[in-house]
What we know:
It comes from Tumebacillus permanentifrigoris. The protein is mainly α. The chain has helices at 7-17, 21-24, 28-56, 69-84, 95-106, 111-121, 126-133, 137-152, 155-167, 170-181, 189-218, 222-250; strands spanning 85-86, 92-93.
Amino acid sequence: MKTLDIQNMQSIRDRLLEHDIYKELNTADKVRTFMKHHVFAVWDFMSLLKRLQQLLTDVNVPWMPGRETQYARFINEIVLGEETDEDGAGGYISHFDLYLQAMEQVGADTAPILNFLQEVREGKSIEDALTVVGVPESVRQFVSQTMHLALHGESHEVAAAFFYGREDIIPDMFTHLVRDIEGQGREVDRLVYYLHRHIELDGDSHGPLAGKLLQSLCGDDPEKLQAAVQTAEASLEARIRLWQGVVDDVRGVTSW
């Protein structure tokens, strides 16, 4: 099986992990600003995951048995964790709702994400809902790219964004983030718990399996391999723009 050519992607990944954002989140106000932006990425992650669940498992009635049971189990395990993870208090909670709890604990503004979701529930398109809420361009581009892949991407493209843009990079990103955040007192307890859960889950098992899934979906097809690389690079670049939007906001270059 051929492997993906990730030389250029590695340089993008390095730029992401060296971004100024990891040195900026040293006050409660800056953490609140970060979360206001980042919660949109927490939300749209589930659409990538759900698309993979549709592709790799049978969610229809009548149900039909599949052939890729190893990957079906892997995806279902991630869905289980993302939708109903341990909440740290003896119960269960989705990671999105856990993040909302963390936002409320630190006093971050949840109105934009909640208003956005309400607009979507009422029938507006993703693009229109983002416009109504007035999100920054960095957030709009990030969510729009994710949702385009989730709705229209080929299986290997979705898997590439899922692996390189999320499961592979998140443990390293969050390790950098948590260093600055966890020393800020009890008001960030829920956020620190959220970050550590992703470092643990994605680093130990989810990331390696997501990589194997991507290789399986690409096989030796050069077009699929190239498309996967391009999608992965675009996903990492979108994350860099998202992070830069946060930095510009906390530095007062822009305001949201």
